[in-house]
């Protein structure tokens, strides 16, 4: 779909890589929140929303990933969440 917008191959590749890496920051989210089977509280949801920034911090030292990090990881995380801490779809 991104190709239909006229995006460059580099932009498409970066988005694909960002999609594959966007949840890496969840290693910094408490297990009690990450694996909670019930609806998240507002505080828990706010905590889980920090995972894209944690992921950026983890990946930033890798020079070849710097173009991927600024917007793609947040865009993917924000657009695939139903605000209850659950993904809308799996990749």
Please describe what this structure looks like.
This protein has 91 residues and is mostly helical. The chain has one domain (7-79). Helix content is 45%, strand content 0%. It is built from 5 helices and no strands. It has helices spanning 9-21, 31-34, 42-48, 51-59, 72-79. The longest helix has 13 residues, at 9-21. The chain starts with 8 loop residues before the first helix and ends in a 12-residue tail after the last helix. Residues 74-81 and 85-91 have low confidence and may be disordered.
Primary descriptors:
91 residues, mainly alpha, 45% helix
Set out the fold topology:
Layout: H1 9-21, H2 31-34, H3 42-48, H4 51-59, H5 72-79
**What gap, in angstroms, lies between the N and C termini?**
15 Å
Shape: elongated
> What is the mean pLDDT?
77
The biggest beta sheet, please? none
In sequence order, what are the helices and strands, one letter per element? Answer: HHHHH
Helix content: 40-55%
- How many structural units, i.e. domains? 1
Question: How many E-type strands?
Answer: 0
Low-confidence stretches: 74-81, 85-91
Using only C-alpha atoms, the radius of gyration works out to: 14 Å
Tally of individual helices? 5
Structural class: mainly alpha
Strand content: under 5%
